[in-house]
Amino acid sequence: MSTMLLQAKNICAYYGPTQVLHGLDLAIAEGGITTLLGANGAGKTTILRSVCGMVRTTGEIRFRGHEIADKATEDIVRLGIAHVPEGRGTFVRLTVEENLQLGAITRGNKVEIATDVERVFGYFPRLRERYRQQAGTLSGGEQQMLAIGRAMMLRPKLLLLDEPSFGLAPLIVQEVFSILKQMNQREKVSIFLVEQNAALALDLADQAYLLETGRVVMAGAARELREDENIRRAYLGY
Amino acid sequence: MELFLHQVLAGLATGGIYACMALAIVMIYQAIDHLNFAQGEMAMFSTFIAWQLIEWGFPYWAAFFLTLAISFAGGYMIERVIMRPLHNAPILSHVAMFIALFAILNSAAGFIWDYQVKNFPTPFGTKSILGEGLLSAHDAGMIGATVVMLLFLFLFFRYTRIGLSMRAAAANPESARLVGIRVGWMLALGWGMAASIGAVAGMLIAPVVFLEPNMMSSILLYGFAGAVVGGLTSPAGAVVGGLMVGVIENLAGTFIPVIGRELKLTIALALIVLVLTVKPSGLFGRTVVHRV
Fold it and tell me: What's the CATH code of the domain at B203?
């Protein structure tokens, strides 16, 4: 078993008085891709928000030796967790360039930042063509690429992705997912992926969790979950 | 023709005042994404502080820069203490708070310094430099100072990382946090800067309209008109808009007999309505395009 990058114990999360997560344990291996599956409303997005301190959370979350459950979002991000949120969180009024610069806003070295912009262009050449354009004018697929690019500008240790396939054409989804795989291998960034498209996610990931109404009901190697009879019927649909 | 030119010049002179105020309004709009109705009263209060410092014997420029610093701290504190608890409140609560601030600052100034009209010195002198009493050195200085401020703001927002952070924090606080920006600080910084710019506007306007607690009431309206005409998202547009409002107001007052002096203020409001109906983003404002 490889070392754990992030370890969560007994997390509960609340929106106002409503409890959404009910004592959940979770571990994300260093260097791997972990996916979180589950139906609508199972609490997938909430887990990502808990990790980033964007929702009231109790329990323990350790990231590289730091306890982060009680930290502010901006401090958690500065430890090396980049989050591509639901809806992508693009700064629509700013240019593509400014969006990428914002991804690296906590870093100081301008030369390194410039190299990283080039690196993002290497993965997403289309962003180079749109460099000076207002980000809101980009297509859905390009905005998703920009969101991932912006997240990578942090040089994160852990990349959290909330439904990157949402609203995209199947061909674009394929492209984005294969780039994620490359990033995972080349940039040494661990990925925690929340996805509705279970077949796609299980192909990409090596570890998987299945969530039902705020509880983990199954966990293991992605390969094993893919072959599980119940998962196949409920989430893969064949 | 000569009358026309004279009126344009005189319009630019008053337009300078509006441009100054419009710039302060757009500045706070950029930083907090809301229109601050108390902006004028904050500027008035700052000007009183400057006046007090000068009364105590400070030289003009010392008082000027000290007032900038005090105003910055004051704006910063207003955000931290008063606006921060409203962080997640709906926009109407913010508006209510702006109006409360307006009333509080207005009465506080009246209470501390009373309602008697006071003279405020100008650093530029009052000699006419163009035409007979049309554009004074002070008017020119005011327009010049506004342009310098505009240039400074443009460079700050466009080319500095902290300027970019402030724009991001105002446009999308949640995403800003997710890239590690300390959004709370940025908002407070925005309030501080807006208060300082307001202070400059107040100190430049006061020699013309004289200092008293209600000095900003009509100017704020003209400032809003200027900001709306130019576009709330564009500081340069605000300055041009402010100057335009001054000129249009003056020309209409002179050449359209019905309007005369009495209906001048109506022009500002009519301009707001006109621009909002025809081109809501203003002449220079960016239209935000969304695509999904």
Answer: 1.10.3470
